[in-house]
Amino acid sequence: MRIARPYDHAVRRALRTVPHYRERYAATGTLPPLTRDEARLRRHLLMPLDAALLPRRDPGRPPREHVAELREALRLAGHPLRGVDVYEVTRASRDPVRAYGTTWRVLLDATAETDGGPGRRTPPDGPALVVGDPGWADGPWPDGVVAVARFGLAAAAGARPAPGSLWYEPWLGYLGAVAAGCGELHLNTARVHARTLDGGTVLTLLKRRRPTFVHAEPEGGGAFRPERCPRHGGPVLRSVRRR
User: Fold this and answer.
1) What's the distance, CA 29 to chain centroid?
2) Nearest-CA neighbor of 46 among 210, 164, 226?
3) Is 25 helix (H, G, I), strand (E, B) or coil?
4) What is the C-alpha radius of gyration for the chain, rounded to an integer number of angstroms?
5) CA distance 57 to 38
6) Is residue 146 pLDDT above 70, yes or no?
C-alpha cells in the first residue's frame, strides 16, 4: 500500500516531539509496534513535549473530539443522523453534547457504578441511535430506536461483523465501520492510517496527539491486512482468511 503524506507527517512529528518515539528510533532506527499494555505504562511519554502534563493534571480528551470521531464512523457505516439523537453506551457519565445538528448522549452500561448502584438499561425515546457492544445491540428497542453494534478487531477475526457496525478499540477510539453497501471494513482515512509491520497490521492515528499513537498494534491485527475496497476503492482491512 502506498504511504500517504499525512502518515509521513505524523511519523516525522512523533520523532521530533514525542519522547517515546525519539527513544525507540534512537535505540533501533525503527518504530516497532506499540501494544496496548506498553501504551498504558508509558502514556506520559506518548505526550508531545509541548503538550505534556502530569497524569494527575491531565484533563483527558475533549468530548467534542470524541463526538467528531463517532460521527465520522456512523457516516461511514451509512447511518442517517438527521433528526436523531445518538446515545453511546459507556461506563462513565458525560454531559450531553450538541454538535452537527444532533444531541450526543450516553447510556451507562451494566458495569458502571452510580450512586444508585450498577447502571441499568434505560431505553431512550426515539428517534435515536444507540451505539454499544453486541449485548446492547440486541433488542427489543422502542419504535424509532436503532441499535448500532461496535466491535474490536480481535472479535472481528473470529466472526465477520455485520454491515452498519462500527470498529472501536477502547484505547484508540472509533477507527472505521463496516459499510452497509459492500460489507467491507472501511478505515476513517481522515484519522487513521494502516500498514503492515512485523507480520501484522499497525495503525497510526493522524490527528491524535495527546497521547500520540504511531504503529499502534490492535489486538487481532495479525488476522487482517490493509487492502482496497473492490467496490469503492478506499482503504479497508480484510481478513487474511478471505484472501
Assistant:
1) 28
2) 210
3) helix
4) 18
5) 21
6) yes
